[in-house]
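Q: How would the C-alpha cells look for this protein?
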Amino acid sequence: MHKHVEIYLDESGDLGFSDRSSKHLVIVALATTAPHTLSRIVRKAHRRFSLDDGSGAEFKFNRSREPLRRFFLERIAETDSWIVWGSATKSGASQRSLSDGDSLWGYVVSRTVSEMSRATHTKSIHLVVDRLSPRPNVNRSLAMRLAKEIETHHAGHFPPTVNVSLLDSSRSEGLQVADYVAGAVFQSVERGESSYLRMIERRVVRGGIYW
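A: Here is the predicted structure in C-alpha cell form.
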C-alpha cells in the first residue's frame, strides 16, 4: 500500500464526429509515487533537445520528432510508474447515446479513472487532469465526478483521500509526460503503429478498447 500517489490524466484524438475526425478517443492515466522522476524527464529533454525540435516551451507528442518521442518513452519505461489506458470508437458512441464529444470524453475518462483506482492501493491520490474550463462550476462538477469514481472503485478496504486539479498541460510536467503515453497509445489503436506502445508496455497494468 502506498502513502501517496500522483495520477496524470491526458487524452489523444479529437472530440469531433465528422469524416475528418479521429476514429478513436484515447484516455491515459499515468500514476507514480515519485512525481519528481517525471519532472526530471522534462528537464533532461529541455537540456538535450533544442527548441528547434518544434516542441516549444511545452512538450507534445504530436509536435515532436522521432528522437524526442523515443527519449520520453524510453525514460518513462525506466520509472516506477504504472499506466492504465482506455479507448472508445466514435462509431460505437452513437449506439450508446454518446452523440457529442463531451459525453464521449466523460464516459472514457470515468471508466479509465475507475480502472486506475482499482489498480492503485494508496492512502491518498492527487489526480491532475489536462482539462480546464473557463467556467468554475464546470471545473467543480468534473472534479467531484472524478473524485467519486476513485472513491467508489478504490482498492483496499478504505477509500483514499482524493484531491483533483484541472490544469493546462503547460503548467504540469507530469501532464507533458502523460501526453507521450497518450500519443503512443493513439498511434497503436488509430494507426496500427504499435512500436511506441511496446516501448512502455511493461508499465501498462490495464489497457484496451472499450468498444
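Residues 2-209 form a domain with the Nucleotidyltransferase; domain 5 fold (CATH 3.30.420.10).

The chain has one domain: 2-209.

Upvote if useful.
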